[in-house]
Amino acid sequence: MPKKNFDLQAVKGTHDILPQDQFIWEKIRKEIREVAEIYSFSRIDTPILENLDLFKRGVGEATDIVEKQMFVLTTKGGDKLVLRPEGTSAVARAYAQHGLSHLSQPLKVYYEGPFFRYENPQAGRYRQFHQVGFEVIGGENDPIYDVQVMLAALRLLESVKLKNLTIHINSIGCKVCRPIYKKHLLSYYKNKKKDICKDCNRRMTQNPLRLLDCKEDKCEQAKKGAPNIIDDLCSVCRKHFKGVLEYAEELKLPYQVDPFIVRGLDYYSRTVFEIFMEETSQSGEKITGPALGGGGRYDFLFESLGLKSTSAVGAGLGMDRIVDVIKSNKINIPVKQKNKVFLIVIGIEAKKKGLELMEEFIEAGINISESMGKNSLGAQLGSADKAGASLALILGQKEVFKESIIIRDMKTGVQETVLLKKVVAEIKKRI
Ligand code: HAM
Question: Ligand 1, residues 86, 95, 125, 268: which to mutate, most atoms within 8 A of Cβ?
Fold first, then answer.
């Protein structure tokens, strides 16, 4: 019976990271480790699976993430689990579960890995994507940490040569002042129901702040005269925001205050921010892509999880988006290439000797490639070329007999013969 046809494509919204792109990912991971070390963030890894309730309570029931974007699965035992849509709630859970408040505070941790959101895939928006996150948990809710996580995020982006970056900063107040602002916002929108999209009409009852970050054209128009939350901040939030801006000024961060940044996760209070990069389109027009990163303060997340109140602030950056920008802007990521060595063997005796020789190279810490399955010299030289080898070692019957080997410079074609017992030492000098 013929096999049923099936779609041999990566699942919608997911993508492969091919060998030829791995050096960009590796460079980003290396820079993440360096930035983490400079600012004293320790690595934390949490599972990809978490309980559904963690995000319902952490991120918030009325958010797009929880309402529409989670991959939920039910175990055979009936537990409801999700593929983590974000990392902050998971880190808060781990902090409480392992009593990390007993370590020196604030605890600074970072993570990097895959996250999952059931979104409409488009440029820069995937269903499986990778995020790096920096979190500062516990201790005082000092604005200095708000700025430090922005700085770490910025340094990371700069380390992979991204330019024209701007941090859009806002404060969304606290439990005391935000309700007052919400009232003002709703009274502004009261007579605008016809001017905004269906989703925004729903937001009016469920999550009014999100009226401010809808990207629909008519909603963009409607929000133009909306009241500014900064005018309604209570004195404590105002002081905190002033502190954030003062530190940002001191550090000369490329920032601008943006009253429309409200973030799509409910756990934030006071500082919120997003980082954008301005690019020039092919027609010379200035365009701003999707946010490369975002974050903010989440002093009330622990309480919403039923835990002891703990102040915290953090940032998350989309690694796939960073890679996309590096590629679309043709940013040169230098690859430190060691001279690659390729072993060519002709004849059965040479194959046997070649295997032995490879072990000697491995023991000496030298990687050596081969295509011993091919027989002819030409085919093997072709493979060496494709592999980008700079040196080829050629072992034929004559060489085996004379216990020697040919070293060929792949660029110039110049060849020399050396004794087999000396070849490892000789190659060591050249790579
Ligand atoms: P977020 O803004 O939802 O925040 O995500 C942070 C970054 O992840 C975004 O700016 C974007 O670059 C990337 N990202 C998000 N969704 C996608 C997607 N579907 N495809 C590709 N990239 C995406 C958070 O997740 C918070 N946990 C950040 C945070 C850490 N706040 C405090 N600490």
Answer: 86
